[in-house]
Each structure stands twice: as structure tokens, then as C-alpha cells.
Predict the 3D structure of the following.
Amino acid sequence: MDNIVGSGVLAIVAGAVVAVLAFIPFVAISYRRRGGLTLWRTVLWASAAVYFWAIWTYTLVPVPESDDYRCRGVNLRPFEFVDDIRSAVAVSGRYLTDPVVLQVALNVLLFLPLGFFLRVLGGRGILIAGLSGLVISGIIETTQLTGVWGIFPCAYRVFDVDDLIVNTSGALLGSLLAFAVPAQHRGARRAPDAEKPRPVTRRRRALGITCDVVGIWLVGFAVSVLVQAVITLALGEAATFSTDEVASLAGTAVSTGLWLVVVLATGRSVGDIATRVRFTDGVLPAWVARPLRFVTGAGAFVLLGALPAPWSAAATALALATVALLFVWRDGRGLTGWLGRRRLVDDRAGVVSPTVDRYAA
């Protein structure tokens, strides 16, 4: 039971990491291919990220902690599991709860989501589901047979040709079950109305802000780790300064600098671009409005947060003002729109007069 729980937790953590890394591209692609982002497909894609890792964690983890383990055998006889089930049930009399039956059933269930996700998210049919199940199962079984490609001296799990059969069957069954999902919610085809303008709502604006916060944090973190690694390799213990502070400063400078360049070049933040929103022209010229967009956004929040106390409190004030102003206007235009008398519109819409405010609260 501990192994099952541990593998599940590991899959969830790994899936969450992938979801965070893919968050901005996922939002941007959704708004361009489907016109927007729905909770249904978001949950499905997040589930698929966790499921991908669950395949590996449940089939390869836990790995032996030392060389003191028993080498496993090989089963090359197809459908041996049928005889195993007959023998086990004849002894126990339990058709649904016998461990041998449950093991086969769990192998089917493990690959069932693969066929489901391939049809619902990828628009792929039963042939691709079957081939995918066979290939992925084959890679897993070969990895087990070779002791994770030679890392271990022998296989610590059984190579079983029946697993190929059962896992492939699970993928095929999942593909068939996916027909229960309405056709309009299946597949990766570009939606016919993908270029149709949508109203800018508070939820959409909050999603854009989240993209900015996540994106600027990821860039800053990646740069910090890279700088830390370079300093450590170059200087090691000879460093006479705090490498953590230098790495953090570099991460902040690069991430906020990147957001500043994007805003000055386009008038929009990364989150605005991902969610396909733009500000209308207002009372300020572009050379004022664009820097204003930066100093009221995520870039300024990160810069203010990096200042020493009590100046860093300004970051908290900016965040509170941003959240509060989300509820003032229906389009969530925030400080940028309020100060520049601008409102947010869908970038798929034509030029709209700033005096016409259909989405005002």
C-alpha cells in the first residue's frame, strides 16, 4: 500500500511540475485553437500530465535501494494469465477480489486512460490507441528486463508478454469508452469559431495575470539556477560573496527585463498576449502608456518585492490594488486602464472606439 501511495504522490508532483512549465503555452494555444479556455479541457490536460508520469511510477518505482534483491524471471508465453486466473479462482472461489484477477484488472485500468486521452484530447482513433499502448508497454517491459537499461545488474521486475497484451487491451478499451464524450468535445481540431472575438471577463483577466506571475517566476528561477551553477563551477569555495544573492538578483533582472522589453515592444504583457487581450487607445500617448503598463503589472511587482524593507511593502500594495480593481470593472482593466482611461478588448476584434464601453460595470 505504501508503494502505491508513494507512486501516486510522485506522479502528482511530477505532473504538477509539467503543468506549471506548460501553463503559458497551454493557455496561448487554447485561445488560438479553440477560442478560449474551458475548465473541462484544462482538467483533462492536467489529468493527462499526471497520468503520463503515473504510467512510469507505477511500473518502474520503487527501484531497488541496493544490489541486495532477487533477479526476476521472464514470461514469454502469451495468455498465461488466463490459466493463472483459472487456478487462483478455483482455489479462492473469488472472481472479483482474488489478487491474480485484481492484478490483471489493474493493468487494464492503468492503460485505459491512454486510449481515452488519445481520442478526446488528440483526436486519435482506436488503431493509434492500440499501437501506442503496445509501444509504451513494450518500452516499459524492456526497461524492466534490462534493469533500467543496465543501471541494475539484472531485472528487478518480471518481463511478461502478457502485460503487453493486457496493457494494449486497456488502451483499446479506453479509446472505445471515449465515445461517451460528445463529439464536439473530442479531438484537437481547430474550433470553427476560434477567431470570433469574446468578451473580456474578470476570469479571463485573472488568467492573464496568473500567466504573467507564473512566467516571470519561471524565468527568474531558471536564470537563478543557471547563474548559481556557473558561479559554483567557476569559483566553488573560493567565492567571496553570497552566490545566492547574486543568482537571485540576476534572475530578477533578467525576468523583469524580458517583461519590460515585451511590454514596450507590443504594449501588452505576456499574459495579455497569451489570453488575446489588448488595451484600447486612451488619453495617454504610447510612449507613456506602455511604460505605465509595465509599472502596473507583474514585472513591477517582482522589482518592488526585491527591494529591502520597508520599500518591498509596495509590492504588496500593488498586488492588493490589482486584485481589488479586478472587481471594479467587468473587463478587469486595472490600474493601467484606470489611469490611462483605457479598456480591455479581445485582440480579434477590430478597432473599437474607446468611448464605447460595452463591458463597463
